[in-house]
Design goal:
three-stranded antiparallel beta sheet; binds pyridoxal-5'-phosphate
Length: 443
């Protein structure tokens, strides 16, 4: 028999479902009037019911939903540990910071070098600077928009300790070459898989190759927690350090309610050395790392859990939309560099990137304005060449061999959406408008 509280919960869930159907479900598409977003939340009553359930439980901080989501995410890609955080940016920051912990053998030290591409997202690059490290900046390839792996070997110096490499827009990097360099030169690898949930390389999920990998659950991404993200690792010791970094740097790994003696069984036996004496100190207040607080709430995890159930469907729909756009733009290959991917890569597309070929009769600004006027949202490929951005232009770094491709992407590339909220009608409208633009320019 259900008790009164459970019955009330059921009633609330029914009402939430009705509210979803009334207010949020299926919006009609009116060509030219309805805005076609490049990305957005795709959800139904399940996300809302989970979140309401979490509020009714009133755990608030990371708790039961967080545990389930961490396990679900780790199982999905096939790694030992997932650690939830409040953003993909935080995941990148923690990954680099954790590899600098004095608990890591042959750790990264201030002044060491980290290899990374110039074409990037700001908070993939920023943690290198924030941790007092030196970026070694490598150009990207056109079409894949990933780091040019042919330049990796020459990028390595005796000071190089790691790589942080994004799978740009969900397109897997050449992991054979990256792993070879990491093994040959004994480098740590952080895969920024923030845009690439569900992508595979050689049959294996991206995010399973690196010492750490990172995920963003911002609403534009494959699965969302509102704001959120995760760190993945197969290394239990690294996971413990990353959790500590996320949780104020504390040594204690107890969750929520702490039993009298704690998970370690010796909560009150920890020793701290003062000037002339050694004292006992509650493990909950022992700090073994210089950390942050970058946790999400259980309400966010509740949303993420409902999204994870839809992950396969989302990835399928994104790739289907990508293929439709690709087919539609094939005739314009003389004008646009269309995306491509390497043989072992199975992308999970975040968006559809397009580069206007150099020497074209129209500018990027013209096509962007035309599409935006037609209510089709466009975006640039993040920061472009990060070293051209105001905040990063004077950072101390080592540049390998010129960054011409990254500059070209910065001046000529953009992307349009493929997210699961787009359907055949919307994609056809996007293609029709690109066709109209090309005709208008008589090219
Ligand atoms: C490649 C990449 N890394 C990191 C991030 C940061 O993720 P978040 O927005 O969750 O902080 C993004 C965001 O889009 C991204 O595209």
């Amino acid at each position: 028999m259900l008790d009164q509280a459970e019955l009330l919960k059921l009633e609330i869930s029914e009402k939430v479902k009705k509210y979803y159907e009334l207010v949020h479900a299926g919006r009609e598409f009116v060509p030219g009037e309805t805005r076609i977003h490049y990305a957005g939340r795709v959800y139904d009553e399940e996300e809302m019911i989970n979140m309401v359930d979490s509020i009714l439980d009133f755990w608030i901080t990371l708790g039961p939903y967080g545990d389930k989501l961490e396990k679900g995410l780790a199982d999905y890609i096939g790694v030992k540990e997932a650690i939830l955080v409040n953003s993909g940016s935080s995941a990148n920051l923690i990954s680099i910071s954790a590899l600098m912990s004095d608990q890591v053998e042959d750790r990264i030290l201030p002044g060491d070098e980290i290899i990374t591409p110039a074409l990037t997202f700001p908070t993939t690059f920023a943690p290198i600077i924030q941790n007092g490290l030196i970026p070694v900046v490598v150009d990207c390839e056109l079409g894949t928009y990933n780091i040019d792996t042919n330049k990796l070997a020459e990028a390595v110096s005796p000071k190089t300790k790691a790589m942080i490499i994004p799978h740009t827009l969900g397109n897997p990097c050449d992991m054979d070459k990256i792993m070879e360099i990491c093994t040959d030169y004994d480098l740590f690898l952080i895969e920024d898989a923030c845009d690439a949930f569900g992508a595979k390389y050689d049959g294996k999920f991206v995010g399973t190759f690196g010492d750490f990998s990172t995920l963003s659950c911002y609403p534009a991404h494959h699965i969302s927690m509102g704001e959120g993200g995760a760190i993945f690792t197969n290394d239990g010791d690294l996971a413990k350090i990353a959790r500590s970094m996320r949780d104020w740097g504390r040594d204690c790994y107890c969750r929520g309610d702490v039993s009298f003696s704690g998970a370690c069984g010796k909560r009150f036996e920890y020793k701290i050395k003062l000037e002339n004496q050694v004292i006992d100190y509650d493990h909950r207040y022992v700090y073994s790392n210089i950390g942050y607080n970058l946790k999400p709430t259980d309400i966010q995890a509740a949303m993420g859990l409902a999204q994870l159930k839809k992950a396969n469907l989302f990835v399928e729909k994104r790739n289907l939309n990508f293929n439709r756009i690709y087919e539609g733009l094939k005739n314009y290959e003389d004008l646009f560099i269309l995306p491509h991917w390497i043989k072992k890569a199975e992308p999970s597309w975040f968006a559809f990137p397009i580069t206007i070929r150099p020497g074209s009769k129209f500018s990027r600004k013209e096509i962007l304005k035309f599409l935006e006027n037609a209510n089709i949202e466009t975006r640039l490929i993040f920061a472009g060449n990060i070293l051209r951005q105001p905040a990063f232009k004077d950072v101390k770094c080592r540049v390998i061999d010129g960054l011409d491709n990254s500059d070209l992407v910065m001046s000529n590339a953009f992307f349009i959406g493929v997210y699961p909220g787009l359907d055949v009608e919307r994609i056809s409208y996007i293609l029709e408008k690109i066709g109209d633009f090309v005709k208008l320019k008589h090219v």
